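Sanity check. The docking grid for dihydropyrimidine-2,4(1H,3H)-dione depends on where the pocket ends up, so I'm generating a full predicted complex first rather than guessing from homology. Inputs follow.
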Amino acid sequence: MADYDIVIRGGTVGSSAGTFEADVGITGDTVVALGRNLGAGKRNIDAKGKLVLPGGVDAHAHIEQLSGMGVMGADNFESATGAAALGGTTTVVCFAAQHKGKSLTKVVEDYHVLAKRGAIIDYAMHMILADPNARVLKEELPALVKSGHSSIKLFMTYEHTKVDDEQLLDTLVAARENRALVCVHAENNGMISWMGRRLVERGYRDPRFHGPHHPRLCETEAIYRLAAFSELIDQPVIVYHVSTAEGAKVIREARGRGVKMFAETCTQYLTLTVDDLVKPGLEGAKWVCSPPLRLQSDQEALWHALEIGDLQFVSSDHAPYRFDATGKLRAGPEPSFKEIANGMPGLELRLPLLFDAMVSKGRYGIEQFVEWTATAPARMYGLSPRKGQITIGSDADICIWDPKRRTTISDAGVHDNTGYTPYAGRTIEGWPVTVLRRGEIIADDGKVKASAGSGAFLPRDPGEAAKPTGRLSPEFDETRNFGAKLY
Ligand code: DUC
Ligand code: ZN
Ligand code: ZN
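Predicted complex below; grid placement will be based on this.
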């Protein structure tokens, strides 16, 4: 009689607290034992010389979704989450995206149909609100948060999805009342559109002008404004994809004065620079994302901000567009940088690239890698302890890493639907060779082993992060003293 369904034997288990030698016993979909010389498993996986790490949690990926520029991404749930599994990610938080005039409830329902049909890894959903009117906030939002969609995403830029300051404030109040987190793409829309117009009017159309199109100050200003709004309403916020040293500094200052502001950066802002946009012809379009890629010195500042806790985790911002008329070149064969779809693929390579940059290059330990790519995002978004760690009672979402395996990245070697990777030609060390999701092997040695639709929806209670501080700004106290109530 076997004691467990699966035992992963002899590996080095990694957690955000450190590493230890242990076998991992799995029964059904759950981790039930951690210890030396565990009893028999129906299946035994030899992990000697390997790392046994929690499956990655990617909390920011655009899948089968119409973008803020009105472009459909290249991936469906099956292609995106199959690629994610091959790269060691077992949980994704993607976006049910409302566009103006649409019912949020219907958007979420429709998105569930797509996810249920295609997902190979487990998934939760943020709700993008492009039209946060009173009906949406009062009549639709409360039930949607209760049914496990406990985070809202807002854009401060992009034509189809941007909200103005008052809409942002209204949404922060509604989030506070319903105990939901608010995640924000923070860039100043006016600066971007003014800069874009001036550049194109003067004939500067090449992809390399996408850098100056989004001046660094557009991030600094928007994060500062968002922090002020968050402070006024006392509503926690998460700043998405911080790209600059100055952006990280504004977050540090806001946190220093007690604002409950959290933040992520993304793989590309740690591993690519604005020089990658400089390529012959339109090739640079593959590196157009927003915020744009920045400088080497920003990479250093972002690592430092992660180290000291001003940023808490690293996502992919997977936003795949093919290099053809369905995606990057949808505006015709000679688009200006303004018309190029924004985004790059990232779900599959987020963990291998970060493992290489952090662990293989000796810059950080396994504990930081696990914390920033799995444990922290799971905790932040109310998925802990089920996801993001290997502990007794957690889902058996596990990657067995060969820390020495060297891989040269190529367009042909990646598995999503984009048709290229911005990282082609790089050789990296460390790869997740076998990946389990809820006790089932879903990827092994470069092959997806699970079927489309086997991923499960993860309803989320809001985590601790979504709790307001309770420190109301003076205006609200003052109005209360007059017997008035603003919210
Ligand atoms: N930025 C991107 O580059 N792509 C998706 C959306 C975003 O904000
Ligand atoms: Zn964004
Ligand atoms: Zn995004």
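Relevant for the grid: The chain has a mean pLDDT of 96.
Also worth noting: Residues 56-370 form a domain with the TIM Barrel fold (CATH 3.20.20.140).
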